[in-house]
Amino acid sequence: MLDLLRPFSTGLRRATALALSAALAFSTAAQADSAGAGSAQAEAAQLPDLPVVTVTDAARAEVVGRVAISGTLVASEEVLIYPQLGGYPIEALMVDTGDRVEAGDVLAHLNDRTLKAQLAQAEAELARAKAAIGQAESQIRSAKASAEQASAAFTRAKALFDRGASTQASLDQAAASAQTADANLASAQDGLIVAQAQEQTARAALEIAALNLDHATLKAPVSGTISARNGQIGAIASTSGEPIFRLIKDGSVELEAEVIETALSEISKGNSAELQIAGSGAANGTVRRLPATVDPTSRLGVLRVTIAGQEGLRPGVFASGWIITARRGAITVPTQAVMSQAGGTTVFVVTDGILERRAVTAGLIWQGRREIVQGLAEGEVVVAKAGAFFGEGDAITPAPAGDGEGAAK
After folding, report:
1. In whole angstroms, what is the distance from residue 378 CA to residue 58 CA?
2. Distance CA 190, CA 133 (A)
3. Residue 82: CA count within 13 A, CB half-sphere
4. Which of 137, 197, 219, 220 lies most in the core, judged by the most C-beta atoms within 10 Å?
5. 305: exposed, middle or buried (C-beta count within 10 Å: 0-12, 13-18, 19+)?
């Protein structure tokens, strides 16, 4: 029986040995694979992680330059209406504050009874001067006739004396009569000149009297809106002090605005303006006048801005806004992409994941973007938010803006 089982036992031992040998070989291979994987992981762990940085393209966009202003609405041109003669009481006021008037409209009346009397007196003086001229002309005609008669008498006396038919005394008397007649004619002619001068004086006095009477009625010199009425009925009109009326010419109102001195060089006549007017809302305007001087204390200059759409605007209302000094298309990047240092302005340009610090010429800032005047081409990729933690030649992992990545991690 034992002899029968011996071959089976020997085969079993061989099979067991073979199985153990195979298991040992598999275990050794597995250990080798595990060691290799661990080495690869260790090597990978030793490689540095590249920072993920948000980048963006340099893109063309509109940029706008503007200067802040604020001030008060004022009359574009205010006309002060004084009486042309003083000392007469105000008899009637025809308009009030806020009234619209046209050129030539009657605004007020002064008491004119004395002025009418002065006009009548001047007319009488003119009539008398004209009569004096008539008298002087008659005297000239009479003197001229007498002079001609005396001259003829002297001629006859001279002829008689030459023939010995008259005495020297008769000749002398005829000569004296002729000279007297000539003198009377010259005097009559001078009298006419005096009478004519008196007529001119009387005519001028009449014109003055008529003008004074006309000035007793105050009229609007231009069309516009009455902004103030200082006169009162019964008050004595005066050519000094407060005017009886203030008139806004054509009703035109504009903004008198203050602007910081450092911005004055950017502003030109004709620049457009975007305004916010208290109680009226938004309005557009145009720079009409630049400041000639700057206040040495506040360092502000005062300019004038005309306003489009005048309806409902009143002097004294506050307004603020912006003067548009430039509007153009330009290459732009986010404002935070530009770094300003002592040596100038720079951006970080990204090429194949490597940073390049590049000097640029920066311009206007508008709606979160900065104009790049020189140094950057459209489409180049830049770090969206540059900072001192970046350096020339740094390697990064770019993340396009909008992916939710920060400027740097």
Report:
1. 5
2. 11
3. 10
4. 220
5. buried
* Count of CB atoms situated within 10 Å of the CB of 348: 24
Residue 205 CB contacts under 8 Å (≥ 6 apart), including other chains = 122, 125, 126
How distant is the alpha carbon of residue 74 from its chain centre? 12
pLDDT tens digits for range 197-254: 999 999 999 999 999 999 999 999 999 999 999 999 999 999 888 999 999 999 899 9
- Look up residue 240 and give its DSSP letter: S
Write phi, then psi, for 315 (nearest 5 degrees).
Answer: -60, 145
Helices (H) and strands (E) in the chain, counts: 3, 20
- CB-CB contact of 253 with 308 (8 Å): no
Q: For residue 63, give every residue at least 6 positions away whose Cβ sits within 8 Å of its Cβ, in sequence order, or none.
A: 326, 327, 328, 329, 330, 332, 363, 364, 365, 366, 369, 371
Residue ranges of the chain whose pLDDT lies below 70: 1-48, 402-409
Q: What is the pLDDT of residues 123-147, one digit of tens each?
A: 999 999 999 999 988 888 888 888 8
Question: End-to-end alpha-carbon separation of the chain, Å?
Answer: 83
Contact 278, 264 (CB under 8 A): no
The per-residue DSSP string of 294-356 comes to: --TTT-EEEEEEEES--TT--TT-EEEEEEEEEEEEEEEEEGGG-EEETTEEEEEEEETTEEE
Tell me how far the alpha carbon of residue 20 is from its chain's centroid. 104
- Contact 115/143 with Cβ under 8 angstroms? no
